[in-house]
Amino acid sequence: MTVADGQTLSLPMPTNLDALESEAVHIMREVAGEFERPVLLFSGGKDSMLMLHLARKAFWPAAVPFGLLHVDTGHNFQEVLDFRDRIADAYGLRLAVASVQALIDAGTLRERPDGTRNPLQTVALLDAIAEHRFDAVFGGGRRDEERARAKERVFSLRDEFGQWDPRRQRPELWQLYNGRHRPGEHIRVFPLSNWTELDVWRYVEQEEIELPSIYYAHRRQVFRRNGMWLTAGDWGGPRNDESVENRVVRYRTVGDMSCTGAVESTAVTVAEVIAELEVSRITERGATRADDQLSEAAMEDRKREGYF
Amino acid sequence: MELLRLATAGSVDDGKSTLVGRLLYDSKSVLVDQLAAVERASRDRGLEQADLALLTDGLRAEREQGITIDVAYRYFATPRRRFVLADTPGHVQYTRNMVSGASNAELIVVLVDARSGVLEQTRRHLAVAALLRVPQVVLVVNKMDLVDYSQAAFDEVDRAARACAAGLGVEEITAAIPISALRGDNVVDRSRSMPWYQGPSLLELLETVPVAPRPTLEPARFPVQYVLRPQTDTHRDYRGYAGQMASGILRAGDPVRILPSGHVSSVAGVDRLDETGVDVAVAGQSVTLRLTDHFDVARGDLIVAAEERAPHVGQDLLATVCWLSDRPLRNRARILVKHMTRVVPAVVGEVVDRLDLATLVPGGHPESLEANEIGRVRLRTATPLAFDTYAENRHTGCFLLIDAQDGTTIGAGMLSAPSDHAAV
Ligand SMILES: Nc1nc2c(ncn2[C@@H]2O[C@H](COP(=O)(O)OP(=O)(O)O)[C@@H](O)[C@H]2O)c(=O)[nH]1
Question: Is the pTM of this model over 0.95?
Fold first, then answer.
């Protein structure tokens, strides 16, 4: 055994990031091998940039064998939309955009009284999935984000109405993923399931992945609502009783402007963001997402209806 | 930093959720907004203290019924180690979710209530741990506060659980720890109430148990996931086989055999997801292999080192099956088998025997397996599979049983040696 032992010892120990990368790549290749029409949900935010980076590695030197889909609420950050288009262009990827604004204009969707469009995305997403007949949809969800997400499988079945039934999830064992589904059903796939927010940033640092500028500290006109700093804009803020201030902030997540809050921060580099996260005592969604604070089961309810 | 994947198991109400909540809370892995949410929810339920079980019971139905239905994955770290914890349900109806959580674990914590001792569900979980070959099994005797922290009570449960585990084929119990999840005794900090116990607290144990080495010493196994043929100007003749090394090591120059065709070739090079050629692929890594010959290699094929122990190749299989569907498995059922990257139709020849959890003995020729039962099954696949036994290789000896009509995963199978056929 000595020869084999000696050889093994001389191999470098894989890092945690290597293991997560190999797992995510394995998942993406399983999807490419078993599905006809996969698509990758791509907002331009950090989790979707990470997925795209992993997809490019998974199929190198061949092209990524699927396109991108973005659900645009009409209240997205312009910087991020520009970034999204530039990246899709640079890598020569097909980008389909499902527009909530278009559905509102057509009368299919109605604006909510509180002005938030996050829940409305589900309809646009499901329409796009049906229209393009996507059978596998990559999402950037991570189990450490939220406790309903902590329950989700890597391959997660959606019925013909796009619904998730958390009580009847398929068993998922070993590294064997079951992609079988009936016509009209589709599978949501979460290659980043086992990554934490810190893993994401450490990998961004290691791989030098470019992210939209709003992830780093910058000066911005913001106002306070429900304990969060929101960006002023024509989506409906601020109200008369809310006052706009000029603050140095950055975003930990990027989504609809009406419900994504910024945190006060001076971190302008990846290393500074990591240093800040290492001592943070508050979760990513808790700090920045108003939509999860609606109720104890806000995320679960949205997921059941077909949300990301 | 080292990573330990662990799962918790135990019968309903033995205190799993409380224990996991306590582990997260006392190791300072609960962030302020999560804690605030739990405190709010506990107050709404009229509780005086924060109910730590609410930290992990993430589904509405779970909180309403006060039970865990599905596995929740938790990520936490101490200065010494990182942990991925699969908190699994105890209720018999949700055994399929417990099996999901345990299949990738290197260590399983089996909880037992000090007052009620080993229950049928404890036996089932120990049987699953033995069957899945979870390398380390830790016994935790909970609610010691309700038995006056008595050593005699602990010893009795410990003895019964060890006997049961041995009967089910658990090779060794790594440790047995008396705790109170509610009060925190021996969870993170050692208890002052049980001076008779000299061992580590649960967290100390989790931080120090040896982590299983990667299976680099096993024969090399590379299931082909996807064939990469870019046909671009820069890579006109490139043909690479994408996959994750299931076990062993392959280096450039190694002779390999492609199964099931049996063709022999050798490794021309290994690409590590970008232009860096690395010349070696190690268990656990996702890589792309290039071979020196252009055979017809496709998804579902298995590439192995030609000079190491060969896998078994055959259509007649004998497997231990954990049945996960509400509809029983019957003789002559037609199903699909997913083994590594291959999906093939199969027919059930016969259910050979079934484990009786009360007596721990397999009973002969039951004709069917009901939900959550474990038994040995003969199968014939439509095309040959190349496999190792589960005892030889935890990665290449397992498969899923899938309902051919609705696509649901209905069972988990672990392969035995073909020579066992004669013995049964
Ligand atoms: N006295 C006492 N009660 C406990 C202990 N651990 C859990 N419990 C209680 O036992 C009940 C079931 O606990 P829970 O964590 O929900 O069990 P699970 O079903 O295994 O997740 C709850 O009322 C807990 O408060 C303990 O160490 N001592």
Answer: no
